Amino acid sequence: MKKTLVLLALSLLMLYPVFAAGANEKPQIVAEKQVVTLKISHNMDFTTIPEAVVDAAERVNARYAKEGKNIRIAFEKDYQTIDWTEYQNNIVFAHKIDDAPDIFAMSDPAGLMKAGLLLDLTDMVKANSSKFVNNVFTPVTENGKIYAFPPDLPVRVIYYNRNGLKAIGWNDADIKALPGKIQSGVFKFEDFLALCQEVVAKGGAKYGLTHRPGAGADFLDILNVLGGQYYDEKGTLVFDEKGLTRFFQMTYDNANVTKITPQNLNQMGWTTINTMVGTGDSFAYYGPIYSCSYVASAAKLTNEQFAAQEEFVLFPASKYSAKPFVVAAPQYIGISAKTKYPEICLDLFAELANGSADLLARHAAKINSLSSVVAANDDPQIAANPIIKDIAYLADYAITVPTIYGIANYRSELFKQIVALELGQTTPAKAVADMKVQIQLNVKDVIYK
Amino acid sequence: MIEIRNLKKVFDHNVVALEKFNLTIEDGQFIALLGPSGCGKSTTLNCLAGLLDPTEGTVLFDGKDVTRAVPKDRNIGMVFQSYALYPHLSVLDNIAFPLKQKGVAKEERYRKAKKVADTLQIKHLLERKPAQLSGGQQQRVALCRAIVKEPKILLLDEPMSNLDARLKIEIREVIKSIQQDLGVTAILVTHDQEEAMALADKIAILDGGSIQQYNTPDMLYECPKNLFVANFMGNPPMNFFKAVMTDKTHFSIGGTTLACKMELDTNLVGQEIKLGIRSHLMTFAFKKDAEHPLCLRVRIVENLGKELLVYGSVGDDEVRITYPDKSQYQVLKALAKEKGQVYLDLGNRYNVFDIPGGRNCVVF
Amino acid sequence: MKGKDLQGYAFLSPFLILVSIFYIAPAILTIIMSFSSLDGAFLWEFVGFENYGKIFRDPNTFLILRNTILYIVISMAIIVLLDLFIATLTTYFIKSDGWASFFKSIIMIPMITPSVVYSVLWIWYLDASDSGFINSFIRFFDTDFVSVNWIAKYPFQVIIIAQVVVSLAYGAIIFSSAIRSIPDNQFKAAHVDGAGEWEIVKTIIIPNIRPHIKFIIMWETLGLMTNYLNILLITNGGPLNRTEVWALSAYHKAFIDQQYGYGAAISVLLILVVFMIMLLWMFASKSKKEGEE
């Protein structure tokens, strides 16, 4: 009996702190102020995005205090590092049980839009339209309504290592002039591929051109360079046989004929590829600008050192496409359609576009990207970043891609064929045919040409 | 002729199963290796079969050294206590199996198998599987399998231990007739002395890895070499009396002096001895006299049908004695109830064993 | 009597409830899901047999089916044969208990290694670059050897070998104890009858452990049909569906392509096949039993 009592007392003693801590979670009325706790969720490394929102809230709080509004915004943070598909699924599930975050990141805005889980931001955006860079809302606009907020404007570019050019005997002037030549359309994509070949042949690098080892939007840029169409102005998926054939032919040739891309590239991991790019073993690479922080750290370089060696350029014009370009692909964040505090959340986003643009600049500088807000692009933080300095001009050539229904399937099937083509296990014609069948089977409403 | 010379077998942990084991078996004889558990009889059989390698010693078949030869080179057939039939083969295939291993053509080996099956009266079972047969039928199949290749030697490892009393007798007859008809040398391992006496031409009694006596059943019964053999053979077992030799021709059992009717080969005067007498060789009278000097306290009386069996004690020794006159049954029963006494005549034929050696000192 | 029944059910009920929640309910949900177009938006829209139609219209279905059947049949044949070989070797031929236990412990190691670790090891061994373990090992003997991208070039062989190595221990140990329980006298009788070692294996060992062999065949078949973890980790069904097996394609469609309804339909078909095989099996053993009686 005595033993039981002692045990009971001990367990109560241990449970007390749990309850006590729990008690503090309840929203309190603190000196007439109502504390509004917003749940903010994010995934993967770029936590400067949600932190910008959190810090912006402090300024909003100050403003509220001045205006006499008795509201104080507080945050419950939920930063994860899981697979993006899983993260987005969790957001959907959370909505189903009414436990969704108020503000969250996303990998596939189209899916969330289809599910009706995003709050309509159109009015807020229209009220602040001059504050934003052009076209940053295109990918998240449907029927004229805007559903997500772009905290940055990272572009997808081609990287190449200046040392590779030095190694094959280029002088400094030529090296410096190359980006300009690409910009003016004189130096075309075909010339670029030939250059990669030359660098490898003359021992300037081990590989000429590498890319991401997984499905993604990067390949669509090359498709675009080769004049392949994958969407129309309405955002419908387009299956362009001729364009895809050219793209698959290039993929096959790069790995099996000119051998500027290693055949087993897709079996290598991110770390291996990042290191190759960072050390110059791979002369050129194409992908989002924010990858360069990973590349730099893989090669154990600082941002400055990497900026000194690497050049970031437009996707050149080619025989099949007239203009060089980059694709701007912001990492959107959204407000839950089911949030209890839509006004406050919209206020936060508006604040980011106005007085708190410096917070967006902080984020953009961290990931070496331009910002989606005009004021942020003039911010000294961005100016101080050696990489962004170089690429600021790219923004003029940026195009944005609308939401395309079925693009995930398209990208997945595309990558499957790329893997096989690079290994030499299929032909471009067969790849196109196989991909066509799969798209026909799995995606509705596709335009075939 | 089988010769076993100085066979020694030591198992793990220095367990000596056989040592200095010598045995000679003539062709065509039926030999029994008889003894209690652990006496080494199965070990000897396995060494003969080639299933065990002896630690030392030699085995010769007709003068040829087969000590290290594998079983299949020894031209033997073997029957096991658990039949050891191949469960998934039909009876016919089981019997024909040894011939198949020798490379005999199918027709020929099936013909031989059927012939042998006929001899043992299991021809009607040839299509069945072992699981569908009774114990006795399975043992017949095992016998067929053992003899189908016409071996020179037939080894039987307690083949009847798994059978009930009636089947035992049946299979006993089968084995005996096979051995006689084929003239094959047979070696039987058993712990049942009745079985050994019924079947064998000669019995080797084993105890603790060595042969106690190797002779015809009759000799073992009538002239046991030592206490162990005397105790082992015969049913009911021999009666033993503790005694002391008082002089060359007299001994005393618990105080009662009696004349020794047997000729001894040693001078045992003053030594302790044990007398061994068969139940049917003693008589008793209800009153003490010169012929019946030894007092027997009666405990139990049994009516065996053809005679009475009286259980009693002489001093500390338990005694069983047969009594032919059944009319005395009630008298003896009353005597037994009150633990009364009768008086023994030790008869004219008994064994004298020295103590502690246990050797039979009588000259037969 | 009735009271006792109730008591029995009462004791079973926690277990029954757990099984219902974690096995039966999801199974039913999957069947329902297969008739919907559930995707990343997680909106239930019922589309009847459309998913099943898709399966039959997809040209890859035939390839996946062929891969699955080949994978199962080849792996199972190798596993059973190797298991018999190992069991016979370690139980019958190798008399020393110590060595036998040693070998058995070694073949158990892949089985108890976590799948992820195991698969990563294979990927590491088969690394396509010059510093890959197998590549540099071969180069040790043949200096002109050009490094091979093993996983990309021989994906089917790789997954079969990987799966076989993992599956060996289970059957080997079961066969081993089965062989041990064969009565010693059968071996003795066979030796006396003049049977050679190979004959003994054929005539005594294998027939005596036939029920165990049947069990392992069924067990491995079921396992190979439904377990895709090693394939997912080593080749991911690639390159280009060359090692895509049925169960893996269900996973891919559901969790990678976010087509849950479609993936569910593929799973349902797999379960139907498993179910039919089990029925056939039960039918076969039952009729055999009746035949023997």
List the helices and strands and how they pair.
The complex is a heterotrimer of chains A (449), B (364) and C (293).
Chain A: H1 2-25, E1 29-30, E2 33-43, H2 48-67, E3 71-80, H3 84-96, E4 103-105, H4 109-114, H5 122-127, E5 141-142, E6 145-146, E7 155-161, H6 162-167, H7 172-184, H8 189-201, E8 207-210, H9 218-225, E9 238-239, H10 241-256, H11 270-279, E10 282-288, H12 291-298, H13 303-309, E11 310-313, E12 326-328, E13 333-335, H14 342-353, H15 357-366, H16 374-377, H17 380-384, H18 386-391, E14 398-399, H19 407-422, H20 428-442, E15 447-448
Parallel strand pairs in A: 2-3, 8-10, 9-15, 12-14
Antiparallel strand pairs in A: 1-2, 4-13, 5-6, 7-10, 7-11, 7-12
Chain B: E1 2-11, E2 15-25, E3 30-34, H1 41-49, E4 56-61, E5 64-65, E6 76-79, H2 91-101, H3 106-119, H4 135-147, E7 153-157, H5 165-182, E8 185-190, H6 193-199, E9 202-207, E10 210-215, H7 217-222, H8 227-232, E11 239-247, E12 250-253, E13 256-259, E14 272-277, E15 283-285, E16 294-303, E17 308-314, E18 317-323, H9 329-337, E19 341-345, E20 351-354
Parallel strand pairs in B: 3-8, 3-9, 6-7, 7-8
Antiparallel strand pairs in B: 1-2, 1-4, 4-5, 9-10, 11-12, 11-14, 12-13, 14-20, 15-19, 16-17, 16-19, 17-18
Helix pairs in contact in B: 2-3, 2-4, 4-5
Chain C: H1 2-33, H2 50-57, H3 60-93, H4 97-112, H5 115-125, H6 133-141, H7 150-153, H8 155-180, H9 184-192, H10 197-208, H11 210-226, H12 229-234, H13 246-256, H14 260-292
